[in-house]
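We append the chain.
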Amino acid sequence: MNTFKMLVITAGMGMYSTGMAAMDVKGSISFNSQIADKNISISGWNKNYSKIDTLKSNQTIINLAGHQVPVLKGGLYDRFRSNPPLSVVEKEAPEIDLSWFKTIQKQKKEVGFTTYSPNFYYSNSSITAIYTADMKMLKKLIPAEVRDIVKPISITPGRGLVAITAYAYHYCDNDSYNELSISIVTTKPNSTNWGVFSLMNELKNKNLWGYVLKLPVDTELARVRGVVGYNLPKWLIPMKYSDQGEMMKFDFYDESGKIDFSMGGKKLAIGDVQPDIVRSNFINKDRNGQLTHGYTDVRAIKKASSKKKDDVQLNLTNGPLSMFIKSLDLGKLMRYDYQPEFQAALYTPELAEKSK
């Protein structure tokens, strides 16, 4: 899924006030050498993470776009391949409000495999941290063909915006999994970069644009579907999600099982809010080098935001994800978003018209 939904769901028009611009991020990003030396048993704790050589008793193998993929035996994907009847979901998870999904019509799509768009995410949680980052680096990370039509939004001279989001998808069409997203906030296609005014316009229209840099996941099903069907930069690593105590926490490991990066966010007080639906768009290239456009509609159910740097923590090591984050030269924390409950509909990408 696209990471920018968390920014648009909780951001307000006063997001970039003078007070926020003066906020310093020191203390919220740390290097932990002790964490870097800790290893895990991949199969010992992570209920999601699985490769073909670690098949569990509750899994079965399916063929997806030529890949042998382990999935939950008897799970939604095993039975329905992204098209479960809502009556089945309602029976198996009666506590979930399905009213929004009942207003959306799925369509059969061929994207290297047969699927049904949009993919439904019925119950999910996430935390997001939005930082300023080095504009020169952000421009280098976006392919020239993409940069011709969307550009990193400039907040201050030499600084753009990066959103780091950790997701726990508790119940969706492809069962459950965790995900980390690192993305650049961009202009909408073929528009002038007016900096904060461009972003404010996107927020006002509830229609945000971005470019996804990194999107690791912890199930092979999510990886194959994301790479083949959505042209997204996904790969498989172990992850750990915890909702215990005063913080929502995510640990991300390298492929050998060594801790790489962890993210924790304070559980903020949730006020009375009406569910809000926002669209998040992304542009990237398919396997043939053609530009594609995909998007996610997100329905926020419970949400809260903060400008306090101590409410979110990034713990970095010398692992590959940590080193990549360090290369972005993160600066000021612009916003922290806590969302313990949201729903989403992820649409398959279509070819984008490139106009200059």
